[in-house]
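2 proteins. here.
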Amino acid sequence: MAGVNLLLGLPTPLEGIERHLVGDTLQLTLEEADALASRYYEAVELHLRGCGVAAAGDDDESDDGVVPALQFALRLFNAENFSGELSPAERTRYGAVLQRFGGVVVKSGRHGAAQVDEGEGEKHEDEEQRESAREAAAGAAGASVLSSSSPVLASVQRERLQDLFLQRLLTADGEMPVATLRLPGLLLAVLAMAKAELVPGAPLLPLTSPWRLRALFRHQLCLSRRSNTIFLALADCVDAVLRQPSEEQTVAMLLEVGHVQSYYHRRDLAKETFETAMHRSGLRVEETSMMGVRTRWQQHQLVQMVLNATSRRPVPPASTTDEQPKTIMAERDGHDLLDRPRETPEATAESVAPLHPEDKAILLALCMDIRNNNPDHGLTQHHMMIYIERLLADPAPSPFMVRCQTLLMRARLEARRNRVQERAFMQLTELVDQYSAARRDPTHEVFGRTASAHFYSVAFPPIWALQREYADMCFEETLYKTALDVYEQILDWESIIECCKKLDKRRRCESLARELIEKDPLNPMLWVALGEATRDDAHLWKAWELCGHKMAAPMRALARLALDREHYDKVVEYFDAAVRINPVFGGDWFALGYAALRLQRLSRSGEAFTRVCQIDPSDAFGWNNLASVMLRERKLRPAFNAMSQAIRNNRRDWRMWQNYFRIGCELKEVTETTNALSIALDIAKRQIQLERGTLELFVANTIAYLKGEIPGTSVDAAADADTHAHRSLGTLPDENDIRHAPVAHTIAAGAAAGDGEEEMADLVPLGADVDLLPDAAAAAAAAVGMTAEAEAAAAEREAVLDGVHRRHADRVRALFARIVELFVSDPDIYSCAATLMRFLDGPIASFRYRQKELRACEQKDQWCREETLFSRTVECLQAMEADLFDAFAEAQEAGAAGASEPAHTGAASPPTLVTGEALQQAVLHGFKETHANIKGALDAAEEHMAEHAAYAQLRELATRVRRGVQEAKAAFD
């Protein structure tokens, strides 16, 4: 096979391993591993120069070039880590390469390799013993399974130590590879060839080479966390590819670039790259709808969202030899959920045109982009699902990895849906099981799965990431024992500790770490795990010394312990050290920002949360905390913008909506705060915390908006400024300009749209939120020679604005009705409602809410003995007195005609107005009731409050109310 000879001629990465094997332990520090890796890269580079290997172009695949060697090596590496596990026959076939780079070669016993190919699937007895010993050596009880004198165990232990040695050489920025990585030596050889330079400054592979990008990205995927060094190297490759002329950018390369950008959370750039790939491919995508059903038993047709997609390029003929992953519980297997909506359950599934394999990968990328750019919500998942349904319904077979990615994304989307949760779990189990040769036909070969030209076009995870996802699902379903077994296989220490807590096996994690330390005593990660399991700082400081202060994990663990102990100064110190080593891990920045915020170091906290949002723009809590920092610094507008990003990424957290509401109130964002308060009430119900000051500010802003004193949003403010600019120039906007066209009919047609009214308000003509008095309007018209048509248009705009105000008043009235219903014993709520209703419906409506406020005040324990509560009651009675005297004056002015109409508002279901004699009797009865309430308060508080100023104020209030009773009787009797 092309490239094998070049691979076999490369230096082996096992050179010098004997110096670091002491007995059955590995003695290798990170500094020594870094030096060995550099030495190996130099050795490979010198070898390639000596062989006369020429510089490779982007598409150079000559038999004697470096690209075929890279292609074969990556195929072999992917076969072990991304698409399955090599069968015994394949290990024998490629045994020379595996042995050269430290891989495991399974011997087939006395009968040779032919016995494996002939096939009964039975292993030789010593092979079974070797396999069980290898699994035991990688697990928790490795050294105690077989006798130490067993030659099979000694061989397996040697292989395991070789893997540990080679994995250590792959460490970057202190981030070590995952413990279950296979063929690390082969990946080292791939990286050495990808980074080699024929002469200084002249790389063997150009930055635009896809193989350079693939090698570096595979290295990143094998590490436990993101590495800044690899990120910078990949960034150079991505920039070089995107700088190429458009005709040289292939669809496959654009997809790979987009996946790299998405992995590092540059989702805006990834979206642009995926869309470029779609345009380059000619794929046509249409999201549409149809009337139909989604299940076998559904009787009534409903509107169903579907995706139509067609390829411009011809679809290659289907291969009869390509393997397909097993689809669990599909429609053809009898599942009652249809693969794709259709008109009736009995109707034949609509035929769709086959898609090109690259177009299928594009659809998967676009589906992932929907998740990246939308909040985690049921609607988002439904939107993504239509892409998966289109791919599942496609008649053309998909490449193996494309089909696996399709099934994996469907399982992820269905994991939270009760109807198909079982199918999701079984599908994920099937995808995990296909990796293990022990769980499938041992004669089944997997190397062919990596032959597809579209292998790198999808973001299918490596085996350990898929196993972690499976374990996470088990953990969520309370299958803690199963989850723990998987976590132990991949040595996910944080999850192991959590599972041990759930199972009350806290010592198990410690014993596992100690057993592994016996074999690898210089591994800093094992000491970190031991320190986290025992919560002992000494183990973490030992890890810090072992890594030569070049690994962030010990500092992260020390910072987490300090955070639990609330030693925030130490948290900042330790996380500062961690992010200096590896600055691309968002979790460190988040905890650093939180600790700095607790210490009131606002500048440092703001920097940290800014980095969180840069690394992962979808981190809603990062945006929320950044807004909190800005709010404390009184940067209100940036804080409001940050909170808008937070709720964009998490629309189900009522605390974020409440924060958005508070900041918006200070900025006088009337329509935004009304919407935010409504949504927060929908989510939180009685959990929401409504502060009196914020609610009073909200009411004041609403009244000012309804009066026309302030605009509804900042957009209106800009329009207002533009209007004043027009007036100062003595001109008005051109009526023929589409931006100023009257929209009264549009809004009238949508009057029943409910929550969509704010969007319609944006259609109000420029400057329509500025109310002119009739005289001022006439003067302005005369000044510019306004025609009769222009006057009619201006009147129409005024009517539109009045309608907007009326609808907003109705919405706020309904909103307060909900609030009052939820908080029946909070006097502050009634106080704010009374202030609003006084403006909307008059003083008698306000008085009714004040009566409820008084009852809520007097329900407080010790209200007549505690000064603050008593003062609050007096404040309420004073407001009641003011409402009554205003209503009395209004009744006198109106006489028998009744009270005047409420200002600026006409509700869809307005409160019944009290008029004529009924109004008079209401005022008289109100005075009497208020006087009785004051007298009762004076009697109840006399013993404890007689010496306080509030009591004297109440006595004066009683005198005024008594006079009001007398005046009302004289006026109305």
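next one coming up
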Amino acid sequence: MPTSVPDLPPTSSPTPQASTPPAPPVSVVPPAPAERVSGPHVAATSVTPAETPDLRAPALYLNRELSWIEFNARVLAEADNEAVPLLERLKFHAIAASNLDEFFMVRVAGLKQQLTGEVGELAADGLTAHEQLVKISARVHELIAQQMASLMGGLLPQLASDGSFVLMKPDSLPPDALAALDERFHNEVFPILTPIAIDPGHPFPHVRNKSLNLGVMFSREGELEPGFGVVQVPMMLPRLLEVQQPKQEPGFAKHSFVLLEDLIARHVGTIFPGVKLKGVYTFRVTRNFDLEIDEEEAQDLLQTIQQELRRRERGAAVRLEVAGEPTPNSLQKLVKALKLDPERDVYRSALLNVSDLMGWVPREERRDLRDEPYHPQVVPPLRDAEDIFAAIRESDILLHLPYESFDPIVELITRAAEDPDVLAIKQTLYRAGGDSPIVKALARAAETGKQVTAIVELKARFDEESNIQWARTLEQSGVHVVYGLLGLKTHAKCLLIIRRERGSLRRYVHFATGNYNPGTARHYTDVGLLTARPSLGADASSLFNLLTGYSAPAKWNSLIVAPLGLHEATLGLIARETENARQGRPSRIVAKMNALVDEDVIEALYRASQAGVLISLMIRGICCLRPGVPGVSDNIEVRAIIDRYLEHGRIFHFSNAGKDEVYIASADWMPRNFHRRVEVMVPIDDPNIRARLIEILNVQFSDNVKAWTLEANGTYSRVQPKPNAPLLRSQQRFIEVTRDKVKVAEQASRAPSRFHMMPTAQRQPLEGKLPRTQRRRLRKDER
């Protein structure tokens, strides 16, 4: 069972500024985006207390759900970007569709539960649950129409005209190919199908979440009431059926496919014999897929979650998608059976389950239609290290994924499992992925007699079943498996290895912003720190003691941990920059994260902006802060990057009056991260790593190819290059820098060298925004 949270006070941190009395509502007027963040560290204008509006006024906050939808709109914009290779555009279409599924299964489902439970809670922007659902529906309808126009009217025809890949209707096939497909239907598909007629004797069947189904409209002789039946498209069969070509036919692509539902629809008369067919259409239902677990009542958390996973399959319907032309009568039957709103919850589309197209084209096919291949690199000092432990002892090491390889982390755990001097390994596992080499190494370590502890988060959304299997595998190998603290998700990413060296024990630690998942490590941008610093090692031990329920420290040496003080510390760091600006000292906040939702933090950022702190936020997804509001957030800019890799890292830079402080963290600035999860924020003590992280931020904020900027009205626009400015695509720059590191290492093994993310000419526009000490450091490095 999970253990209870110790009753500990939060870690001490500077006290944020007190709130000012309420003031009249704020008028939101977006200024020119290019003017938001410029000039020296101490902004020229600040707001006096008498001018300060109510910083909790709903007009100052963007709606969380609508902000997420705009993130997905940016993904779709990349799918529609003609500068992106065709098959990468197809990938972005699939990602956007998969994202939207999860959004409905969790966020829309939650809003519907609020309505059902008559919960009157308002969002930060003042909208009720009903108002949010209406706005969500309107915007999603717009985006689906845009996606279908882009996909069906542009991308798929382009792939077909290219002559390599085409999606066909059965009736358009040559006779030989169609006959082979029909034979396949009768031999492999028809025996599996179960037609269900809907009438008083046959109640409406349970429609599985995200399954494809055919709605069949028909009439029977002598009956006035129109007939309606349902056929579920088998989920165990491939949806994309490649058409066998005895010979190359004119108009045929190298790979031609037919959708399984189209093949079944062609034979629906065989499935429903003896009726007069009126039409066939495809539909798909999305259900509430969130887990509801009372951990205090659970005697066995693993068993309870397994039971809840089975119940989740029958969650309430939240969305109905339809492709084709259903009759009003049949659509009414569907909507009524699913208890949905016919105006708000029904979405029409030309193609359902677009995410299935993700694996349409084999990776080895048509590389010219994909991004240039890039394989993560092992760079110095790990590249030439014969002893990875010695390399970590020598100095802290930063890994920047996926440009640098995740392999050293896998190798570290694998070596530790076999090393006779390693006594214990402790690790958190949130999303380990399939066939995990890390889980196998932990199991091997336990089998060799080492003390191995794994904190497996069973409640990682949509990874629950996978994590249950890993937990059982580890337990069977002798690993001490713990499910974390009662009522909290363990989202911190930490690995601790305890090794006997020269008669004493030494701790080796890895902290990361991303999961211990080799698969996502190739596609997500993250950073990780390898260190043997005693203070961080002691804190890592305390963290695992907290998670196993043994004890927790009254004070941490270096770490800042949620829910035991991360929220307060974050507010304190922002308040310190605010006070520095008021005192005329250098002040600056640059932060990169996935989401900004917490209202206390947003209010603190508004106060900092009013005091003259220049604030740059790189937020991939949800942002509830309105930048550029006169008198409130004039000094705040918000950017986002959508590119070939998913931006996932969390990096925080505070100027601290010229004494830069930099942190990496597992947490975003959201209430759930601060209060309902175990999270870790790690201070970066190594000056070289600190400078490198700052420069990573600088490169991202100089991106003028894949970056977007948030306007005060909640819309996003692409960042446009300034006249005569060179183009800079940050992810491509990181690829080039990493390749350069490897080249230098190959040419002069172990020779000392420095690496810079940006040429001086491209760094200058941003350099004026940096603290004086940092500008001096950059110039010194350049020399």
